[in-house]
Structure formats: C-alpha cells, structure tokens
Amino acid sequence: MTIDNLKVYEYYITVKYNNLVIDTNQYYKAAFSIIVKQNPTDAQDMIINKTIHLTLLMILKVKNSYLSDDGKIYVLADNPTSKNNMRKLISNGEYKCFRQKESDGYYRGIDYLLLICNYYSDQFFTARVKRLEADDLVPEILKSCFGKTLLCSSDLDWARCMSSNVDWYNHTALYTQESFKKKFKYIPNEKTVTLMKVLMGDNSDNIPSVKEITEQIALNLIYNFDDIFEILDCIKKNTEKAKLMSEYTKKVLLKNEKRLLTNQNLVYFCEVSNTEIEQAVMKGNFDSKNLSILYKALNFPENFDSRIEDIKISFGDIFKFDEVQRK
Length: 327
Description:
Blueprint: H1 3-14, E1 17-23, H2 24-38, H3 44-66, E2 67-76, H4 85-90, H5 104-120, E3 124-127, H6 134-142, E4 149-152, E5 166-169, E6 174-175, H7 177-184, H8 190-200, H9 215-224, H10 228-237, H11 247-255, H12 257-267, H13 274-280, E7 282-283, H14 288-297
Parallel strand pairs: 1-2, 1-4, 2-3, 4-5
Antiparallel strand pairs: 3-7, 5-6
C-alpha cells in the first residue's frame, strides 16, 4: 500500500460525520432484491416485512460506522406516485421506463420504514416531498447541515452536492472531492456532474448519451464550460472560447442540440423551496411503545431493539377510544 493510499484508508476508517443523508429508496430496493432472492416462495407481505427490517439494519450499519455520537441522519425518500411525471413528459416516456413497476405493498413498506425512523431516535430526520425525487431535496437539506456531511447513495446525481465539507459514499467506496477527481478525472460539483450526465447520459435513468462524444471530449468541455447552454451559445456565436472545441465536436453538439437540451432538463435538480423542505422534514423522537407495536406488526425478530424491554406489547390500547356522550 502506497503512502497516499494509506492516508486515504486512514481517513475512511477514522472520519466521523456530523450529518448523514440517506437515499432511502436505493437502500430499500437493494434490501428487497436480497430478500426476494433468499426467500422467493414467501408471501408478499412477509417479503415486505423482511425488506423493511433489512433496510433498517443497513441504515443503522452506516450510522454506526460513520455518524458522530451527536450527529444527525436525514432519511430522504422519493414520492412514490408523482416523482417522475414531469421528467417522463419531457422525455416522451423514456425517463426510467425500463424500471420495473412495483406493487402498492412495496411502496407502503417505505412508508412503514419512515414511520419507524420517526420513532427510532431524535437523531433521525425523515423527508419526502410530493412531485420530487430524493436527490432533489439534497441541496436544501444541506443548508441545514453544520460540519461534515456524508451523502449515501450510489446514484451519481448525489455527487453533484459534493464540496470540501460534503463527501459521497456510493456503497463501494467513500469519496472526497480529491479522491473523486483521481477516479473520475474531474472535480465534482453541481455544474460538472450535471454537464457530464448531459453529455454522457445515464443508463440507470435511461438518459441516452451522444454516442459521438467520448469521455475525453466530455472532460475537455467540463474543464472549460459551465453548462450545455454556454457551450451551444459559444458555438453559434463563434466566440473566442469556441476555439477550445474542434470543428468535429462543434458539429456533433449542434447536430444533437435537441437531445442535449432534453438531457439537461432531465438531469438538473427540480426547484424546491426552503419552506417545502421545512414542512416535509419530520424530526424523530424515540418512542418505545410505538416502536414495539411496529416491530410486532412487521414481524421483526424478538429483542431486535435492545432499548425496548418488552416487545410483546398488546395491540389492545390502540383501539381504545374515549367514550363520547351522543345526543
């Protein structure tokens, strides 16, 4: 192991973050795939229950590994019904069209997971905003984060929010801006990652690339321009800056202008106000009784949560109502 690699390794195993921001849908999807593979004959409700359990374990593992003792963990989720409508409309239905549509029960499991997080600890904050995907919430969430933050998602979209105080964990490696640059050959921020995805596409979201544009061409454009609008404007006006591009590159970009502008509209963060975020964020509060009820309802293993002495709580008191004198 080289000195540089040793320094990176030591950083990864010693750093603790003041904030974690979790891509809940991605963790849940990974857990679901594992459970289905392990238990293909189980009934759907049992599969969902096990998925909720495994997802929570995955989140807690990241929390225990990377969150400081007094840190905050933001659990962000997509809106399950309207998240893709705008982007699907722009792309004539192409956006994420190859992703399998899951059952209502699948998405209800995410609801239960968020509910558990709300009762699990005051370190947890959950958020979901109608019409938006989880990554759209990240820029505003980060405005409320103090100290160092770790973004937890394998989706490159999340790397757009990296900075000197914000690192990215894609489940296989943890990246600072410096180590990201060594791996991907450019410094990650909202402009560079967005432009790279506009030019090179994104298979996971079914955003097509411009085939004639190589990675080297894309990197050259990223080094010299802020966005696709500036690039196209420079070409059309034949500015001094346009000389940074070859004639071949200019022709390819102009020929694919419609595709590139569509990609831009698919990739950029949807606007969300601070007020929307404030209304959507729910602060957790440890509640042993409600957790016990949820654990039992979802068939969690007994003694799953060592903070709860007796998980065998009755459902009876859920259904007690104060008597009302009716005329």
